[in-house]
């Protein structure tokens, strides 16, 4: 497994710092002139290099980053869930498991970028999640689905290659990736798991004719081989993918066996007192959001069966980290208008949030969540894009909090006018579910 102590900041937009004078900053801190795709070839090359260098500095350099999060995976998901009808406690759980799929574990920070739990408290929560109410603010470790895990198939949750024998991009973008389950098998499999159709999710979404996870046998090693493009501005250098098929691992156990491996069908007991249903929904939404965010790469990459398992082929140009990181820079903190971004290729936040809204609405309708009246999807998404488009990270976060308050919703703990240890969030210990 690839490992970095700062992996949380690789694709996040809000980075929290230990430096008092700059406590919050943009993780991919590209200049304003790079926050558009209306660039000449020379400008594009320069901006790709800047974006990649910024990301690598946060990951492996001397950056003072102390934590971070994506405002799409966390703040926007939390906002949409509440607006549709989920309680703040339910919406919070969905959002933090959405974020934890990237970071391995969600750790809570307040509006000033300060951690709400100490390192000792986080460690204690890993031993006994029920001992301290503060543990409800964070998730347990989800190493099996983390984006740098090349053994458990975690990488594929974030970069799901299409199931075909050649690159098969959609006829148009944005598209509904859930409408093509034979091509976007992993997304479809994760939705079935999240919505309760099947009790498990499968590595890469690979199942047999009975919808069971394909597993390795002595006569047929079921492994996904391939190379993930990495660490290059244009034509990327490969990192080996060697994911063993079977039921998706949520958290890897210790080699000495003192900590067991947690599989997708065991997630409810593992995340308790959080609700397993909402953890699954958050993980599925993360994969769906990433399908749009990383569509430039995933649309032209493919995975097909071979005599020794499956082979994944990732496009080394469209998946190179220079354009990947610059594309992240074109998301949160960038104007999403047609004048600034070509909508048919580089506008990803709007389509991702639209799909998120649809899936939250469908889940609520099918799982007994009372849906609020008079919802206007397009107005909701337009309002949400306003704060997300603000380049300055402090102003962006403050604007998002004001939007929560203007709609009568509960901001994240430690944000707005509610206390850090909100009774609303903790109410789930007394009322774990309403259905």
User: Helix and strand succession?
Assistant: EEHEHHHHEHEEEEHHHEEHHHHH
Overall mean pLDDT stands at 89
Strand content: 5-15%
Number of helices: 14
Percent helix among the residues?
Answer: 25-40%
Uncertain stretches: 1-10, 429-435
Classification by helices and strands? alpha+beta
The N- and C-terminal alpha carbons lie at a distance of 39 Å
Outline the structure in words:
The protein is of the alpha+beta class and 435 residues long. The protein is 36% helix and 10% strand. It has one domain. The chain has helices at 41-60, 71-84, 88-103, 119-127, 154-158, 185-194, 267-271, 276-293, 295-298, 321-329, 349-366, 377-388, 393-406, 423-426, and strands at residues 14-17, 24-26, 65-69, 162-163, 223-230, 237-244, 249-251, 262-263, 302-306, 309-313. The strands form three sheets. The protein has a five-stranded mixed beta sheet, with no helix packed on it. Helix 2 packs antiparallel against helix 3 (88-103), helix 6 (185-194) packs antiparallel against helix 8 and helix 8 (276-293) runs antiparallel to helix 11. Mean pLDDT is 89; it is low at 1-10 and 429-435.
Strand and helix map with partners:
Elements: E1 14-17, E2 24-26, H1 41-60, E3 65-69, H2 71-84, H3 88-103, H4 119-127, H5 154-158, E4 162-163, H6 185-194, E5 223-230, E6 237-244, E7 249-251, E8 262-263, H7 267-271, H8 276-293, H9 295-298, E9 302-306, E10 309-313, H10 321-329, H11 349-366, H12 377-388, H13 393-406, H14 423-426
Parallel strand pairs: 4-9, 5-10
Antiparallel strand pairs: 1-2, 1-3, 5-6, 7-8, 9-10
Helix pairs in contact: 1-10, 2-3, 2-11, 3-8, 6-8, 8-11, 11-12, 12-13
